[in-house]
Write a sequence for this structure.
């Protein structure tokens, strides 16, 4: 279970470039829940994900995973509990190393790494089995540099790597946004499949409203560093893209007003 | 013939340096200038230990350990104190100049009549040859030179093998990935900074070992002996790349390339000196060579000429 309590983050404080990226976000993701975050550009959705991943430390607030306070853990320590797939397909793998070597590194996530052979016979077989299950024909290319693969193939492997050691939390940062439509659909399908099979707890940032409606069990909408909508349970089941569009419109209209005026006027629209 | 044996011996000794720099420049992708200091440090430490009567193997190990510490320091400066890559190397290299003087107590420690790692092989060679010189292709070569060549060959072979095996371990693959994609390695639960520190330490340890062998081969350690070594190592690695082709990705091939590159480079230098190149111009020529090797591929690419096959997709 992921608990985000009242997180704030301001970038470049005290300068003209000051950005209040997160303004007191509180969010709890129950075990086995697949939640998506959507929001306009600059709404703070990626910042929130990075705050959980530990890319930076928040100004205030705390983050708990399964009751453990990880607020002050560095990024690499959090990786023991958290699996990640990045937006950039090149970010999750080492291009010049082989497919098998990349996966072998992921098989040791959160474990000690000694001077044992990385690709022993049994490890190779294990890798080949799981890669074959992807049905992408990559099992014959295990010794090729991973940089020779397409973005979609690399993202599928990154997903496999992030979930190889079962993470307590899986973070997906617009992980299909940089792919062509066909690969994006493939990776999205694989994502749903793995999450359902392993009953993972997931926080996914997405730009695609279609994905937000189809894939997760819960949709959180962010705007200006706050959570503005939270569709869960029955409310999520009835959710359509049109509903999300309307919600976006509401927050955009709110922006047209001065913050103080908005508090008075907006209730009349709603 | 002595010249060729000498060039080979020197090339093999310096290929330890090239292997060390292979770790920093190729594996970690870290432009490490500590090398100039740690080579002299390794030589100084070994020379002083040898003079104090320490057995050669322990003295050489001392040079290795001293280099390890130097690289460790550079790594810590860069990762935990956030000093720029180049600057952290320059700082340690500069500091090491004084350290080396302190270690030696003077600017030059001669090694006369002190034992070296080649002593045992020398006895063996003398026994086999039945005299003080060995005939190679009809040319007499001092047994001592042959012994030294055999010793460093064995040492380089063992080091290269160990390095290759290490790069295939869990720790080794993680270090390679940390050099290429630190973000990925953090996401896999490893502090990439420690990978860098450890890699630089091992890298400079090999450079220190190279210095240790150089001191034993030349018969002295000098505070100046490290100057320009980084560029020499770089030239060797570049030649190695050219020899094996830039498309080669296997670490084994790259290691072999680095060793062959160093030997070839030493042979070229021996030939150039023989033809009357002023030794004072050596470093200028080396620097020019590295410059040309770095610039020509980009320049040639603009003209549409391919010199080396393929290119890196880092």
């Amino acid at each position: 279970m992921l608990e985000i309590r009242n997180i704030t983050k301001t970038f470049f404080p005290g300068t003209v470039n000051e950005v209040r990226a997160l303004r007191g976000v509180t969010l709890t993701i129950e075990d086995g829940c697949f939640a998506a975050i959507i929001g306009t550009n600059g709404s703070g959705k990626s910042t929130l994900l990075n705050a959980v991943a530990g890319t930076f430390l928040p100004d205030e607030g705390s983050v708990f995973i399964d009751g453990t306070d990880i607020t002050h853990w560095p990024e690499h320590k959090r990786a023991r509990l958290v699996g990640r797939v990045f937006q950039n397909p090149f970010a999750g793998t080492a291009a010049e190393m082989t497919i098998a070597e990349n996966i072998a590194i992921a098989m040791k996530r959160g474990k000690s790494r000694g001077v044992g052979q990385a690709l022993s016979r049994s490890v190779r077989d294990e890798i080949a089995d799981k890669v074959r299950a992807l049905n992408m024909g990559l099992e014959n290319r295990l010794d090729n540099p991973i940089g020779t693969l397409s973005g979609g193939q690399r993202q599928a492997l990154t997903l496999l790597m992030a979930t190889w050691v079962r993470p307590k939390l899986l973070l997906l940062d617009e992980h299909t946004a940089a792919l062509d439509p066909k690969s994006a659909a493939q990776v999205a399908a694989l994502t749903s499949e793995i999450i359902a099979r392993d009953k993972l707890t997931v926080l996914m940032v997405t730009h695609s409203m279609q994905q937000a409606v189809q894939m997760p069990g819960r949709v959180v909408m962010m705007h200006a560093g706050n959570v503005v909508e939270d569709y869960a349970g029955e409310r999520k089941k009835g959710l359509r893209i049109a509903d999300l569009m309307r919600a976006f419109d509401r927050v955009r209209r709110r922006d047209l007003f001065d913050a103080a005026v908005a508090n008075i006027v907006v209730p009349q629209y709603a | 013939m002595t010249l060729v044996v000498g060039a080979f011996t020197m090339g093999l000794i310096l290929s330890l340096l090239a292997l060390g720099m292979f770790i920093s420049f190729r594996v970690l992708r870290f432009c490490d200038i500590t090398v100039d200091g740690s080579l002299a440090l390794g030589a100084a430490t070994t020379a002083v230990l040898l003079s104090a009567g320490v057995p050669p193997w322990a003295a050489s190990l001392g040079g290795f350990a001293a280099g390890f510490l130097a690289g460790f320091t550079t790594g810590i400066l860069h990762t935990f104190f956030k000093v720029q890559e180049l600057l952290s190397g320059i700082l340690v290299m500069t500091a090491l100049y004084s350290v080396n003087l302190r270690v030696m107590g003077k600017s030059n420690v001669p090694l006369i009549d002190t034992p070296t790692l080649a002593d045992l092989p020398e006895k063996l060679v003398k026994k086999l040859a039945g005299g003080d010189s060995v005939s190679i292709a009809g040319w007499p070569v001092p047994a001592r030179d042959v012994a030294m060549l055999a010793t460093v060959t064995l040492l380089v072979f063992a080091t290269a093998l160990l390095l290759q095996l290490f790069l295939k371990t869990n720790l080794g693959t993680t270090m390679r990935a940390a050099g290429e994609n630190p973000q990925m390695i953090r996401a896999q639960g490893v502090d990439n900074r420690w990978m860098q520190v450890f890699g630089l330490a091992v890298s400079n340890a090999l450079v220190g070992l190279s210095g240790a062998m150089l001191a034993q081969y030349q018969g002295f350690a000098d505070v100046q002996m490290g100057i320009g070594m980084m560029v020499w190592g770089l030239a060797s690695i570049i030649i190695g790349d050219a020899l094996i082709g830039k498309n080669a990705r296997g670490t084994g091939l790259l290691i072999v390339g680095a060793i062959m590159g160093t030997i070839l480079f030493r042979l070229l230098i021996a030939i150039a000196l023989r033809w009357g190149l002023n030794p004072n111009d050596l470093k200028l020529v080396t620097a020019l060579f590295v410059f040309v090797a770095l610039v020509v591929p980009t320049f040639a690419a603009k003209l549409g000429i391919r010199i080396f096959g393929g290119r890196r997709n880092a």
In short: The first helix of chain B runs from residue 2 to 27.
